[in-house]
Amino acid sequence: MRLRGAVLSVATALAVAAPVAPAVAAGPASPPAVQAGVQALKCHTNWQNSTSANVWCDGHGPARYGASILCKKGSLQKQLNYGPGPWQGDRRGISMYCPDGGFKRVKQWGWPG
After folding, report:
1. Is the pLDDT of residue 2 over 50?
2. How far apart are CA 60 and CA 63, in angstroms?
3. CA 23 to chain centre
């Protein structure tokens, strides 16, 4: 199932490689589990603001990557995981958004999809 987010601007729309459904993670903020033997990816932030970010990861397709964003409101934290996303090396990246209601972006990162 794919979710389509609201378009904030033309630049945001162009930066989205493909809509992916976020999943709310339980427990402490950390990247999703990485399988043994999978090489770590070097990931980069295309853009970020107080409530959203866009991340892309080095590499070559058809291997894919995902990305996560950690959001905070007071003492409440939510981690949203997006993926699998585009092929590794696709610099359009994955755009991620904190939930409405006052949540602010704390950090973002990418991981092997």
Report:
1. no
2. 7
3. 10
Q: How far apart are CA 33 and CA 42, in angstroms?
A: 16
Q: Edge to edge, what strands does the sheet with 65-73 contain?
A: 22-25, 76-82, 65-73, 104-112
Query: How many angstroms separate the CA atoms of 52 and 69, rounded?
Result: 8
Task: Let me know: does 73 contact 104? Beta carbons within 8 Å.
Answer: yes
Q: What angle do CA 31, 89, 72 make, to 5 degrees?
A: 30
State CA 11 to chain mean position distance: 17
- Which pair of structure tokens corresponds to residue 46? 């295309």
The enclosing H or E element of 11 equals: helix 10-15
pTM confidence score: 0.66
Residue 38 gets which letter from DSSP? P
Question: pLDDT per residue over 40-97, tens digit each?
Answer: 789 999 999 999 999 999 999 999 999 999 999 999 999 999 998 999 999 999 999 9
The residue whose two tokens read 């427990």 is 27
The secondary structure of the chain in percent helix, strand, coil, rounded to multiples of 5, reads 5, 40, 55
